[in-house]
Amino acid sequence: MTLGTSHPLNNPIWHALTTSQSKFAETSHLARRFPVEVTALAGLLEPTRENYDSLASIMGVGQTAALFLQSPPTPPAGWTINETSPLLQMVYDGRETSTSAVEMEELNAANVAEMLELAELTKPGPFGRRTHEMGTYLGIRSGGKLVAMTGERLHLPGYTEVSAVCTHPEHLGHGYARTLVGEIVRRICNRNEVPFLHVRRENTRAIELYKRLGFANRATLQLAVLSWGQG
Hints:
The protein is α+β, with helices and mostly antiparallel strands. The chain has helices spanning 12-18, 49-56, 112-122, 176-190, 204-212; strands spanning 26-28, 31-33, 42-44, 64-69, 79-92, 105-107, 137-142, 145-156, 159-167, 194-200, 215-228. Residues 1-5 have low confidence and may be disordered.
């Protein structure tokens, strides 16, 4: 899939926080971030010293920001790089999704503790006490226990990100991820929006699943997790 260099998905966090999710934005002139209780994601207009300084102005010492960049991070003094790795961005190609008879439920504030427990176990990416406020989150239970979930994270005009795709390791092999992603994709498409997602490039098992579900590679971004004021 070929998209223009100015396409909003090239800088999705920034575009989300300046458009559809601006209500969440903690802002400075050249930087935006979500409240820490929602997610660690933050966006820069461009990865320059001035932009990093702008982000630092809305962060506390020791706080962490997760950025999606076009290339590996080169922050100025005062920042510590905790992690950097390639991140594959995939976009749904529009094929039909199948329905499933597996019972799902919408998750909300009442489910925060068990959502956090599952996210901590499976490490799907930044997940906080208020992440569920970013969009619809669906879960599957076994024996009353939440064993799989998937939801919506970044929203920008015409696009919604599928995120937090995770299954308890003792419940793999039942197709729960396929079921949940398929349903989230169906709901996004019903709003006439395009689903997209991000996945670590080394996570080949997940990438193959997403391809089978109709996602195509669009770009490789760079995940950068940085701390301010400890360098």
